[in-house]
Amino acid sequence: MKKERKERIDELLERYFEARATEAEESELRGLLHDGESVDELPAEVRLLFGGLEALSAERMPEPAAGRQILRPAPVRTLMRRISPWWGVAAAAVVAVGVFLCAGWLREPYCYIDGRPVYDREVAMQATAYFDAFATLGSSERMVEDLMETL
Question: What is the pTM (predicted TM-score) of this model?
């Protein structure tokens, strides 16, 4: 009888660890493990596992002492009422300033004049007055070409 009982426990443990045991088989396994005779024959890991599960199932929430109230977390709506609406305004201002600064840092210049970045196209086009000096070089080149042709 003892051998049959050990084989049944081994079979139930195998099904339990493979997650194939039904609820009836699990309750049968618990019943067999509660008997003092078969517990000593089990491996230490199984005794430790089921002993820990038994201890967890026995835990209960403590009752409050007389005159003391259990503190529970406040609902979200209550927390939202406590938060000042000015925090929302401050957060929006921080986001706006961040967007403004990032836009300034991420934009690319249209060109560089005198080593400084120019972002406006019209300002860059007004700076073409610097190129007037090169026009005289072009006229002297034409004069040399004319002289070469005539000679």
Answer: 0.37
Report how far residue 144's alpha carbon sits from residue 99's, in angstroms, rounded to the nearest whole number: 58
Q: pLDDT digit string (tens) for 22-68?
A: 889 888 887 877 766 556 667 778 878 877 888 887 878 777 666 66
Whether 28 contacts 60, CB under 8 Å:
no
E strand segments, 29-121: 111-113, 116-118
Cβ burial of 8 (10 Å; 0-12, 13-18, 19+) is: middle
- Which class for 24: exposed (0-12), middle (13-18), buried (19 or more C-beta within 10 A)? exposed
